[in-house]
């Protein structure tokens, strides 16, 4: 009974062993390919074919070519997951996005391909997380100074190429040290978070805001002229002034704004920021909670 059961299950076990073992696959392919000429000659003789040397040689030649072709095709199919894996890794290096590999084989090649594919996906996820952390201010969730400088340089270069306007907005929360001294750093952090939320609520999809210092913020306004930027700055100034945050008195959170539009003499983003920072300094000089524009030197008491 056990023998009959073993004999009945033998084909299934053999097929499973072949599917799960690369060495077994290669052995079976090579064994069959090598013996194709012999099997062809036996079949030719048993089938009553001519036994002349020419006919036997012809059978051997054709069967050898057929066996070789079958061997190459089978090996090509076996290593197909490796080619897919190589293409996926190459595309990931070029485009930066992992490509899933549909590997159906269960042998060693399939196992390696699946493992590498999973590893690339995990590494890509970790890389994106690390990139986000490296470019984000942890307290406010806005961009950090490093990311602002990088994107600001790119935006200014694009502005110079296209000729479109671009404005830069810098602002400080007024008397922020007094908030920390009087109410503690926890309240100061809450004020910074509230300011970040106010910034987000007033930004357009293409704008980019960041925290570049303790209480200093920066907003990139691509495709924006000075008049449009002033309107955005005024909305933001009003929004900050209306923040209600206990235990601070209403209107305690205000900000001074420096604003500048890109110009030909801004050969790099650092000079652009320096001009905007000068406007911010003048806004503080003239009483705070206001907007000052550069390079037009048009002070706006808002």
TrEMBL record:
One of its GO terms (biological process) is signal transduction. It is an enzyme of class 2 (transferase). Pfam families: GGDEF, HAMP. GO terms for molecular function: diguanylate cyclase activity. InterPro entries: Diguanylate_Cyclase (IPR050469), GGDEF_dom (IPR000160), HAMP_dom (IPR003660), Nucleotide_cyclase (IPR029787), Rev_trsase/Diguanyl_cyclase (IPR043128). This is diguanylate cyclase. One of its GO terms (cellular component) is membrane. It comes from the Bacteria. It catalyses: 2 GTP = 3',3'-c-di-GMP + 2 diphosphate. Its EC number is 2.7.7.65. NCBIfam families: GGDEF. SUPFAM superfamilies: HAMP domain-like, Nucleotide cyclase.
